[in-house]
Specification:
By secondary structure, the chain is mostly helical. It folds into 2 domains: 11-65, no CATH class; 80-159, no CATH class. The protein contains 5 helices and 2 strands, in the order ββααααα. It has helices spanning 35-42, 85-94, 96-104, 114-125, 138-159, and strands spanning 11-18, 23-29. Strands 1-2 form a two-stranded antiparallel sheet. The longest helix is centred in the C-terminal third of the chain and has 22 residues, at 138-159.
């Protein structure tokens, strides 16, 4: 462990209360590429010794606007097609054009916002959560069919 201050960017992913110790436990996930920098900066946890660190919320721009870890190269961006299906579905549900597609092309005129779109996708894919859209499942086939239909619809609309 080094005594030099270090900033390591990660995402806040879980919180729980440890009643027996009267503490709150935060889970911050760090990209695997930053693991060595994290260990260099903080050392490995030692139950016999406390290591105090600070927790701060970083800017609204997300990971790209946050400080990079020690000696870390910027992470390459993945294309939409490279994203896991649940992430694709979540992004589509946020997309106003996708919601318009659902209303106009699929005739789901009740879809107004991202949550409505998520409800539609779950129903379309016959799942209870978008996390269930996994490779090799029926949900994957249904998602890919819907997403392909949307992409074709969007291309035709933009060409017109």
């Amino acid at each position: 462990m080094t005594d030099k201050p270090a900033a390591i960017a990660g995402t806040y992913s879980d919180f729980k209360i440890i009643r027996s110790r009267k503490v709150a436990q935060l889970v911050v996930e760090v990209p695997i590429e930053q693991a060595q920098a994290l260990i260099t900066a903080l050392g490995l946890p030692n139950p016999a010794e406390e290591t105090w660190v600070a927790v701060a919320r970083l800017g609204p721009g997300g990971y790209q606007s946050q400080p990079q870890a020690i000696s870390e190269a910027p992470k390459a961006h993945r294309t939409f097609e490279q994203l896991p299906y649940p992430q694709q579905a979540a992004l589509r549900c946020q997309d106003m054009n996708f919601r318009e597609f659902l209303r106009l092309e699929i005739k789901a005129d009740w879809v107004r916002d991202a949550e409505d779109a998520a409800e539609f996708v779950r129903g379309w894919c016959k799942i209870s959560t978008r996390k269930d859209i996994r490779p090799g499942t029926e949900a994957e086939k249904l998602w890919l069919r819907l997403n392909t239909h949307y992409t074709l619809w969007l291309s035709a609309r933009e060409a017109a």
